[in-house]
Amino acid sequence: MPTATDALVVVDKVNKHFGELHVLQDIDLSVARGEVIVVIGPSGSGKSTLCRAINRLETIDSGSITIDGQPLPQEGKALAGLRADVGMVFQSFNLFAHKTILENVTLGPIKVKKVAKKEADAQAMALLERVGVANQAQKYPAQLSGGQQQRVAIARSLAMKPKVMLFDEPTSALDPEMINEVLDVMTSLAHEGMTMIVVTHEMGFARKAANRVVFMADGRIHEESDPETFFTSPTSERAKDFLSKIL
Ligand code: ADP
Ligand code: MG
């Protein structure tokens, strides 16, 4: 279990409402450096809202979130710094349609981190190589398959040298035959020591890569355990019910 000193992401008693809806209820979650957390739970349980709160795309009503000991900034330059530290990959790939694959990956380092173009290009090519799409560098997003685009989105996040990567259902918009090529990249990242919070229902990935599964429903964390324990002997009624529907 993480100790106070190696906790990279600390979510402490976080509450969030959307009007009457209490979407995050006293959420406590501590993610250690190098740890891989899989967040699982029914639709509408607050998983995306939690990810968005950690990246400060959503505000919270109470509680606190710290990244590497620093509270989330409210705005301005510090917020851009946070977005670099906390990479996020969404269900939809969100690549810039009118920029090449290479430009999609170099844009952040050049604009935000003031990396020289030549260096940014070299780093981007290395990342595209790592996710297996270096030969697509001069193409535009629409010319790539969904699986390739999602791997580019991962490379684009990695280009900012994040401390932690958030993945919100990164494979749920993909055709089945492309899911594994994205999960394989994520599994390698996990094994290389990247700190990751991954919302997914892909149990194969959870078993291979996760240190811990966190089960959310109705805005609460109901259960957390190692993947094997969670999938074979969940204890909460909500988790048992959920697993009986997806297994
Ligand atoms: P999950 O990712 O687990 O499916 P979400 O975090 O997306 O759940 O949503 C949790 C609940 O909050 C849902 O009922 C959703 O309709 C609601 N919700 C999400 N975003 C907003 C928003 N911006 N305004 C109002 N309600 C929202
Ligand atoms: Mg969601």
Automatic annotation (TrEMBL):
This is ABC-type polar-amino-acid transporter. Belongs to the ABC transporter superfamily. PANTHER family: AMINO ACID IMPORT ATP-BINDING PROTEIN, GLUTAMATE_ASPARTATE IMPORT ATP-BINDING PROTEIN GLTL. GO terms for molecular function: ATP binding; ATP hydrolysis activity; ATPase-coupled polar amino acid-transporter activity. Keywords: Amino-acid transport, ATP-binding, Cell membrane, Membrane, Nucleotide-binding, Transport. It catalyses: a polar amino acid(out) + ATP + H2O = a polar amino acid(in) + ADP + phosphate + H(+). The keyword Nucleotide-binding applies. Coiled coil: none annotated. It is a peripheral membrane protein. It comes from Demequina lignilytica. SUPFAM superfamilies: P-loop containing nucleoside triphosphate hydrolases. Transmembrane segments: none annotated.
